[in-house]
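Quick one, tokens below. Sequence please?
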């Protein structure tokens, strides 16, 4: 078969050259579409089911984690299911068989979750994790206040309500996770002695706060040709609004307000900060997670452009500092491949010129190496394999095989032609050259 391919290629040289040029043009176009990353994605197709419920781990294990795991056991293409319960959290990792499409897997998990969610305890919030993989963490930034005027909770509020959404709208970004700083919250400290004095159970206080912090819609009232929308506005927006919540009404009709039995204040919920990244100390930041199947280099560049465009809207004295950037590793890996290609071509050409003193023979590896490397990106794209350190290392190693083949082929052809000349040039030169190739 190989001999026939060689003979066909030799007999149809122009057709082969046109085919190589066409494939080369396709490969060049694919270079802009193929996925670039520093690390190969060797993770399984995995869907994470995340649940929140303010209960102890044993209760969450029995009433949340176990029902979810048992309901997903019959899902198609599932290879393994792992459950993990923590205080207030439940994680279920659904691992599918190799080759399963991630979004098909997420659809199946949602389908099976719809059966079990009505049977979960009231108050359990269940959601799917981001459509990313284990190598999706591609970029991280930190907000640094050079002036020291902004508190950690103000920086966190700007990150949560402004910067995070702007970055998450970048194409290819699956999630932006906020870390560090403090989350603003209203803290209500109940006095148990006052509760006993007013004969108020604790659950009544919780129920009153929950019911009062709400809005209700009425109906449309027509009056003198005008329509008036009737609504009740009940969202609490300050400490005073919470303090005026009516918890109970006494027998004499006197309301017992929340400030009579509790103290309301604004306090921060502690979050773990970015621990001294690049000497910045504890600060506020964001982790950018790339969506599955995206080009990491393009996503990182797009995130950098978005952050640069947002610098004018930052609070005065606040800078965005990059604390992790994978694009440098990706670009260095590509530069290593380009360097190795150049070195290999120069060395092989010099070796052939030194031993054969024949310039046309040196052209063979100079053409073979870059063309072969360029065409190798076509199957990488079709198989969905990203260009990363591992795939580039394989290409760099295979350059040695290309060099060996080129040198052996050139040396054998040179030897055949030399003997053909010594024997008086008997026969056709083209036949001698083809015989050396097939041999």
């Amino acid at each position: 078969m190989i001999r026939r391919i060689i003979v066909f290629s030799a007999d149809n040289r122009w057709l082969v050259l046109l085919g190589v040029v066409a494939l080369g043009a396709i490969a060049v176009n694919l270079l802009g579409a193929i996925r670039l990353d520093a690390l190969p994605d060797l993770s399984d197709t995995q869907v994470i089911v995340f649940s929140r419920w303010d209960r102890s781990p044993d209760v969450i294990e029995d009433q949340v984690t176990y029902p979810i795991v048992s309901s997903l056991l019959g899902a198609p293409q599932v290879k393994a299911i792992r459950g993990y319960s923590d205080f207030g959290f439940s994680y279920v990792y659904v691992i599918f068989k190799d080759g399963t499409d991630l979004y098909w897997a997420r659809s199946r998990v949602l389908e099976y979750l719809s059966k079990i969610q009505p049977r979960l305890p009231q108050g359990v919030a269940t959601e799917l994790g981001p459509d990313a993989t284990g190598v999706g963490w591609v970029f991280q930034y930190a907000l640094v206040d050079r002036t020291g005027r902004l508190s950690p909770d103000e920086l966190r509020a700007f990150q949560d309500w402004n910067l995070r959404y702007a970055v998450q709208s970048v194409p290819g970004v699956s999630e932006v996770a906020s870390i560090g700083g403090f989350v603003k919250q209203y803290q209500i400290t109940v006095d148990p002695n006052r509760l006993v004095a007013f004969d108020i159970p604790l659950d009544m206080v919780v129920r009153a706060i929950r019911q009062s912090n709400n809005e209700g819609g009425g109906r449309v009232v027509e009056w003198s040709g005008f329509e008036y929308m009737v609504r009740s506005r009940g969202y609490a927006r300050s400490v005073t609004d919470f303090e005026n919540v009516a918890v109970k009404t006494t027998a004499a009709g006197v309301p017992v307000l929340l400030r009579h039995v509790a103290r309301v204040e604004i306090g921060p919920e502690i979050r773990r900060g970015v621990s001294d990244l690049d000497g910045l100390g504890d600060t506020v930041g964001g982790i950018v997670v790339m969506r599955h199947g995206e080009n990491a280099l393009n996503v990182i560049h797009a995130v950098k452009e978005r952050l640069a465009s947002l610098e004018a809207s930052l609070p005065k004295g606040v800078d965005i500092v990059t604390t992790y950037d994978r694009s440098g590793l990706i670009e260095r890996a590509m530069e290593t491949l380009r360097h190795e290609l150049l070195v290999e071509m120069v060395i092989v050409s010099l070796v052939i010129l030194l031993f054969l003193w024949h310039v046309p023979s040196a052209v063979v590896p100079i053409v073979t190496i870059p063309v072969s490397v360029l065409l190798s990106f076509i199957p990488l794209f079709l198989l969905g394999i990203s260009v990363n350190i591992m795939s580039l290392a394989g290409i760099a190693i295979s350059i040695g095989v290309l060099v060996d083949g080129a040198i052996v082929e050139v040396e054998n052809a040179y030897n055949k032609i030399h003997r053909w000349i010594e024997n008086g040039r008997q026969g056709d030169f083209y036949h001698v050259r083809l015989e050396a190739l097939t041999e």
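The two ends are 13 Å apart (CA to CA). The longest helix spans residues 389-422.
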